[in-house]
Amino acid sequence: MDDARAMLIRLARPDDARAFAAIYGPIVTGTTISFEEVPPTETEFRARIAAIGATWPWLVGEVDGEVLGYVYASRHRERAAYRWSVDVTAYVHEDARGRGVAGTLYRALFRILERQGFHRAFAGITMPNDASVALHRSVGFALVGVYPEVGFKFGTWRDTSWWQRPLREGIPSGDPIPVTQLDAHVLREAGVAEDA
Fold first, then answer.
1. What value, to the nearest 5°, has the Cα angle with vertex 81 and ends 168 and 34?
2. What is the DSSP letter of 15?
3. Chain-wide mean pLDDT for the chain?
4. What is the spatial distance between Cα 22 and Cα 42, in angstroms, rounded to a whole number?
5. Model's pTM, two decimal places?
6. Whether residue 192 has pLDDT greater than 80
7. Whole-number Å distance between alpha carbons of 168 and 114
8. For residue 137, how many other CB atoms are within 10 A of its CB?
């Protein structure tokens, strides 16, 4: 089955917390993909979803009510001049990997971020991770550089590669447009459901 074609893409809601915890928990405990060491509980995920606010999109991909994966954007850095840059992340259930789910969700996220006025998206990948590198290249990311031995997990220092993707190419230099809130108009233009 082509999960990506049949997938409903919508905004995350608090009752997605259980599915998010099920997807993310094994990534935390069994891989170096995440630098978290203790998987967030369903309650902690509910709090994370509730704290999203009106700017940062979290998207869910589901088929027949089953959550296959999720992506989200977050603040890149605290200083004001960074406000047009975002960090992005994608996580897919182990059984749905390799079926286009992450790429489809990422493309929907980028459509939203572009309409909101963001300029660049950034992603960090713990090395080695050939699948994640291939995913990010396939959706337009280019390598920026590597932070050597930036994290310590499973008894070893880990390198993280950093990738960037333009969101608003061809924009003349000068003052950027203000970043807008996530609203129904932006979602409609991006082809994403507010809820299902």
1. 75
2. G
3. 91
4. 9
5. 0.92
6. yes
7. 6
8. 13
Given a contact cutoff of 8 angstroms between Cβ atoms, the answer to whether 69 and 101 are in contact is yes
- The H or E element spanning position 59 is strand 58-63
Helix, strand, coil percentages for the chain (3-state, nearest 5): 35, 30, 35
Helix (H) or strand (E) holding 60, with range, is: strand 58-63
Please tell me the distance from the alpha carbon of residue 150 to that of residue 134, in angstroms, as a whole number: 22
Report yes or no: 37 and 154 within 8 Å, Cβ to Cβ: no
Residue written as token pair 């309409």 = 115
- Tokens at 154, concatenated: 């499973």
8 A C-beta contact, residue 146 and residue 162: yes
DSSP 109-159: HHHHHHHHT--EEEEEEESS-HHHHHHHHHTT-EEEEEEEEEEEETTEEEE
Mean pLDDT of 73-77: 94
Nearest 5°: CA angle at 70, between 65 and 74? 145
Residue 106 burial class via C-beta count within 10 angstroms: exposed 0-12, middle 13-18, buried 19 and up: buried
Report whether pLDDT(177) > 90. no
Say if residues 126 and 32 touch (Cβ distance below 8 Å): yes
DSSP state of 98: T
